[in-house]
Amino acid sequence: MCVIARYYLSVEVIVPNRRYHIHVVCAANDQPLVLDRLAIFFQARAFLTYDVSNKLPRAALYGRQCIDACDYALMVVGDSYGTSQSLGVSQMHLSYLSAKAKLKPLLILIKTHNGGTEVSQQLKDFTRIVQKHAKHIYYYDEDTNIEQLLSYACDDIAVNYQVRDGWVRANKKLAKPDSQAIIAQYAAASSTSSSTTIKPDSRSAENGVTAGSLNKPIKLIDAFTIQYSAQAYEDGNLTDITRSLTLTWQQVLQALVKIPATFSSYSLQSCINNLIAAKAEQDIKQEMPNVHAVSRYKIAQNDLNKLQRIMVAANWIQLTTYGTRVSQEMWKTTFYAKSLFAKSQQTMSH
Q1: 178 compared with 276, residue with greater pLDDT
Q2: Interacting residues of 6 by C-beta distance below 8 A, sequence separation 6+
Q3: Residue 307's Cα: distance from chain center in Å?
Q4: Which H helix or E strand runs over 345?
Q5: What is the DSSP string of 3-60?
Q6: Is pTM, for the whole model, over 0.85?
Q7: Residue 295: count of CB within 10 angstroms of its CB
Q8: Beta 46-50 vs 18-25: how paired, if at all?
Q9: In 10 A of CB 143, how many CB atoms?
């Protein structure tokens, strides 16, 4: 059986003859037939690396290096949690946290067990953590056609994430995708999806840059649209509203550099919410003239996640510590981002 998690929309031009690096996060010596099927399925599609046994002294370092280098991460949660290390977690758990910290596109396969199957408490706890925070989860059992499941799942994640160009054989030169075709594909996909997404405005589109692009530097003059929710008070009544708002990267960077030296994901969300409040209240009151107060501005979670991925890819923020929960992650604004902001201020003053 197959259950699909929430959808996050981006733009991906599917180009034949490209091969990507996929790192497989798994427990050592678990689900060998499933891993063999992965190897066969991806033989012509991707290069695979796998987590190795933590009995090897460099297992954790190898896993981190593979995740740093990979285009996608694919995790197989089967019958075993793996052997716990000195930190109290298995290599599979460490690799999962590393993929999350690096904001890698993550595809997850979770095996469903019948009532008579004994499953360790560690595996149960880990599975609950993954299910709570993951975006793309596919379930399988002994009767599932893994190849068919992978075919559907990979098509889905390719549409939802844009990664690097991948590897192409030297004798196969591929034409550069037409920017207008990319924009048209984005518009067509957006019109058929109910997902919240960061959308490029006309200036971004004309430059061939979308706010979802993860492989291009951010241009401060580019603008993008986000979705947010808020609560409006009118004649003693409370109304939940959802609106869109256009921001520029210059505005985001200006808010970002004001955050303390290290900050949590919640602090980043609060920073963006304050930025929304400063711009949106007047628009809402113009649209709803009888409203006397607006509060609880909150950026849509989809857009916050995507905004965070873009800033990581652009080297604006970097992770300093991470834990088993998002609330334990700590970030900092990079020296590059601060220098970029200082340079922009000098340009504006001149």
Answers
A1: 276
A2: 135, 195, 302
A3: 9
A4: helix 335-349
A5: -------------TTEEEEEEEE--TTS-HHHHHHHHHHTTTTEEEEE---TTSTTHH
A6: no
A7: 11
A8: parallel
A9: 6
